[in-house]
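Intended use. Records like the one below are meant for learning the mapping from a protein sequence to its folded structure. Do not use them to infer anything beyond what is encoded.
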Amino acid sequence: MIRFDFLRDITIQIPTGEVVLKASKINAGYRFDIYCKGTVGDVEILKFERPEKLYVNNWQSWGPAKVIDKDYSYKFPVELREKFGYSASIMPEIAFDNLVSDYLIGSHDGVIGFLTSKTAHPYFKVGKENVELHVNFFDTRFDNWQITESFVLLNLPFDYALKYYSELVAEENKVRFEREKQIGWCSWYQYFTNFTFDEMIKNLDLAKDKGYNVFQIDDSWQVDIGDWYANDEFKSTKLIADEIKKRGFRAGIWLAPFSVSEKSKLFKEHPDWLVKNEDGTPKVAYQNWDKNIYALDTTHPEALNWLKELFISLKKDGFEYFKIDFLFAGAIPGKRYESVSPITAYRKGLRLIREITSDNFLLGCGAPLLPSVGLVDGMRIGPDTAPYWDKNGPDIGYPNAFYALRNTVTRWYMTNWWQNDPDCLLLRRENTQLSDEHRRVFTYVTIALDNMVLQSDNLSLNIDWELWNGALQSGKKKFFVSNLMNNTPIIESGGMGEYLKISLDFNTDSYEILHQFSHRKIEKIIERREDGRTFNYYNEWSDENDREKI
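Structure written out for the chain above:
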């Protein structure tokens, strides 16, 4: 995309301050550190010619990550703009009518990607002929010179550049997260908001010996969005956790901690805890549940204390797995108690939750991706799945199993930042529009990429348990995805005695799976030599080799 033959610092003068890019050579490319002084808003850093094909990425979990041709154009549906609000972009005024890639962009010959998003929001504005690299600091004031964000330009073939970029991000953010694979059950994609206490007990009793280590209840248990205590149906959060734990599962719960419904008690009693418009009125972040949803101001001391007490209380009740959703609400621009950027405010709120849940599993969803690196254990990397598959549906973050699968592949490299959550497997053979082939390819991609494995079915239905048991028996793997830039990715994945090769074609919605496995025997031989030294040798052989082509 861009090639530099020499190193030099770049100074950008702006009316209220100054920005300097300091360049340094790294393996296979260059690193740029951005220094700021003064009041800095949205700054154009670089401009380059638009390649024939581009990898583009949306700012949060549900948004698309995909490869586009040069004739691709984009405009967000006008009739959905108010409903989606900031879920579509942190800068909807730009992104609704322009093609934008957040955090990184790629072409056949490399990747330009940001290592951090701690204060600013980095993005690429893609025009017909050129691509502009921007960094939006949201008028943040820097009294002294300060290093802010960093990005790299990697001149490698795209698939390898993407992997290398992922490793650099993990190193830069000193990433640590829980590595034990989460295997569990979730209520959402069978019951949605119609989940009941009796259905919870029924599925808990049926979940025995299914291999789950987590049982997570989703949206349905709470009084309202923002009022995070149990409704009359579920009685108490302690009762929920007790019922789950006494059956041997890790108790999991869903909530949207940065979202506040206009009908909630929290909204009525503490409007001062919300992000505001310039006129001081609470600012709508998005619409859902047939309500306006506002954003918690995570810089307000009282709001932070409320947030702290919320998670302390849920932990005390026995929950050890937290799915925190609609997190983008914490990062919307607006007036806050403290004059900081929305990214800084978001990270302050998420860091508080991380500190409280440091010994628990924290799963992000609907989250700004790069600002969350290092602060969660797992992350949803695509839109909600669904009991239907529509290759031609709107690609704007709507629930759709096809786009959930697509994003699972196109964001595979994020596995270095957290456990990737591809969303739940739907394995029922009734109450669904998914075919056997759809269920199979979603499951095989999930295990090939060593992702979290969650299921969301009424366990009393006709379920493909053979497919589920196959997913459980598949061990830890090393994997790589190639050929992404042609929209025909190939996943190669291997572990102890197992090899998977999955060829997908997103253009034609076709795929082929080769599953090869062997039953291996290992013999240990201990040799003790005369000088007292001990040597261990291992003989390994296979007594069977099976191939499955699907």
